[in-house]
Amino acid sequence: MFKLAVFGNPVEQSRSPELHHAFARQAQLSIDYQKMTVTRDLAQAVRPFLDEGGHGFNITSPCKFHAFQLATQHSTRAKLAQAANTMVVRPNGELWADNTDGVGFVRDLTVNKGFAVTDKVIVIHGAGGAVRGLIPALLAQNPQKIWLINRTLEKGLVLAKEFLSLGALQAVPYGQVLSDVDLLVDGSGFDCQQFAGLNSVQFTESAWAYDLKYANVMTPFIHWVKSREIKNYTDGFGMLVEQAAISFFLWTGFSPETRPLLT
Question: How many other CB atoms are there within 10 angstroms of residue 252's CB atom?
Fold first, then answer.
């Protein structure tokens, strides 16, 4: 029996238990995957889970930075992002941190959606933990340029400087005209009225818009995207599935098929 969990706040809406139990059925493995709300301190919330023999867990907002700090060992992906969404409990009890957000996002975008990142112009809106995981994975695909827009320009500038050595990344303020954009990624968590600052972004005919959030109803960002007449758009469920599959492999050694969960 693999004892697994997702920690964050909120976690009530999380579909991670559903996904991992589906993966477990593919692998013919027995798992126990629970939702755990972090009310104050992540280390305090995790301790009972570890004491009860937990094998690994996912981390969702707003705890990805704290998870990275809690771990004693880190993957290259986690080190680049300085944030973690997947934790593996080593046999000696040490925590090993990884960030599967970026590789899961790129797989959904390129394999499931058929979007080739190479030489494309990309705009990322937001600068939180999920975005930090995305940037190295996107830059590794050699886009022409990534523009970063954030509510606090200073935070965007710091983030752009941090990743500048990996590729063409630049932070810009709201309202700057950005032309021939092939992909817009939203990781801001804003509501519908707050996307007006992106109205200066000009898109190609075949452009995609990608919301890192997922929901059973149309998200505020997708509402805004439709108002801009962008034809290709998606929420973040595909990314959730793909990053979860990588987490499952890290815990169990079994690489599940994701397509059945996306159709």
Answer: 19
Delineate the domains of the chain, giving CATH numbers in brackets.
2-100+239-262 (3.40.50.10860), 102-238 (3.40.50.720)
Name which residue leads in pLDDT, 252 or 191.
252
Locate 184 and state its tokens: 């817009």
| Terminal CA-CA length for the chain | 28
Residue 124 phi/psi, 5-degree rounding, is -110, 130
DSSP 187: -
The tens digit of pLDDT for each residue in 204-223 reads: 999 999 999 988 888 899 99
Predicted TM-score (pTM) of this structure: 0.93
Q: What values do phi and psi take at 147, rounded to 5?
A: -95, 135
Asked if 99 contacts 85 with a C-beta cutoff of 8 angstroms, the reply is yes
Q: Which of 3, 64, 120, 213 is catalytic?
A: 64
Angle between helices 16-27 and 237-252 (to 10 degrees): 50
Q: Using the 8-state DSSP alphabet, how is residue 109 labeled?
A: I
Percentage of the chain with pLDDT > 70?
99
Could you tell me the two tokens for 101?
């957000």
Does residue 35 have an active-site annotation? no
The pLDDT of residue 134: 94
